[in-house]
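Support request from a user on the community tier.

User writes: "When I paste my structure tokens into the form, the page sometimes reloads and wipes my input. The last time it worked, I copied everything first. Here is what I submitted, just in case something in the input itself triggers the reload:"
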């Protein structure tokens, strides 16, 4: 069930969600409770280069001098659209009871990119010695 929800949500977000706060989002995992009452949806946000959003400092400058956090903006957009997404899932999956959607940012992609960079740096410094 979790894989089906993940697949359907990915398509819905990409094709049907019309919120400017939600850009390049990847649904990385879905965990559904045994009674199908709740689904924890893990997502990551990609930048325009297809890599994870930088963890530090986590904010980018926008017009007007205010800082915007792409992770927080995306989370707010997804939470706002949770009812719409849940209704669409109900139509597509033909479930008697559609789980409540709880969105959580998945830090594992950023962590993997950071570790990969550290390994590359260690290899580069080791070969220069």
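"...and here is what came back when it finally went through:"
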């Amino acid at each position: 069930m979790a894989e089906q929800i993940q697949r359907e949500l990915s398509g819905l977000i990409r094709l049907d969600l019309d919120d400017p706060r939600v850009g390049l989002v990847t649904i990385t995992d879905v965990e559904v409770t045994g009674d199908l009452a709740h689904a924890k949806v893990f997502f990551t946000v990609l930048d325009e280069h297809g890599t994870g959003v930088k963890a530090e400092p986590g904010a980018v400058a926008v017009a007007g001098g205010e800082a915007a956090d792409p992770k927080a903006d995306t989370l707010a957009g997804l939470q706002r659209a949770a009812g719409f997404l849940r209704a669409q899932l109900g139509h597509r999956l033909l479930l008697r009871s559609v789980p409540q959607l709880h969105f959580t940012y998945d830090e594992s992609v950023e962590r993997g990119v950071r570790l990969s960079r550290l390994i590359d740096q260690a290899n580069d410094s080791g070969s220069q010695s």
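Agent notes: The reload is a front-end session timeout and is unrelated to the input. Helices lie at 2-15, 70-80, 82-93, 108-128. The longest strand covers residues 25-32. Escalated to web team.
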